[in-house]
Amino acid sequence: MIAETVCSAVSAAGLGIAAITAYRRRFLAAARIAAYSLVPIGLVMTGVVEWLADTAFSPTAWAGFGVLGLAWALFATTRVVERRRGGTRKERRAARAADRTEAVAPAASAPSLGQGGQGSRPASRGEDDFGDIEAILKKHGI
How buried is residue 50: exposed, middle or buried, by Cβ count under 10 Å (0-12/13-18/19+)? Predict the structure, then answer.
């Protein structure tokens, strides 16, 4: 009974504020305030407030909220662990398969002492940046 009275008072006050806002020619804001102020009275009329009042004093309902909280905590924990591991099992399996197929040693430059006067190898894609440095080192016999 008290909850219904409070909700009705909140709705009436909200509609009054909406009327003042509309008087100031802020019709969009007034319509939004009126919409928010009608929610409590709508909840009373549908019986949600009475159900909430009955639920607030029920130990079974509180146990249910506890179970829901535990379920949410488990979902959140598993999501955090999944992000740290790097995705779902299928994603990790696909990443491992890709690592196995692409596990090739990077192209290393041949030592200049072992070539003994042979021409330099054609540069691979990783050696393009070091081509000038190799030429200078070969010029000085290093």
Answer: middle
Six-digit token string for 76: 């959140």
Q: Residue with structure tokens 């430059």?
A: 109
Q: pLDDT value at position 17? A: 96
* CB 138, CB 120: distance < 8 Å: yes
- Report the chain's C-alpha Rg in angstroms: 36
pTM score, whole prediction: 0.43
CA distances (Å), 16 to each of 2, 13, 22, 26, 124, in order?
Answer: 21, 5, 10, 14, 77
**Phi, psi dihedrals of residue 83, rounded to the nearest 5°:** -65, -40
Integer Cα distance of 83 and 110 in angstroms: 41
pLDDT in tens, 73-125: 999 998 888 888 776 777 778 878 877 766 555 555 555 555 555 555 555 55
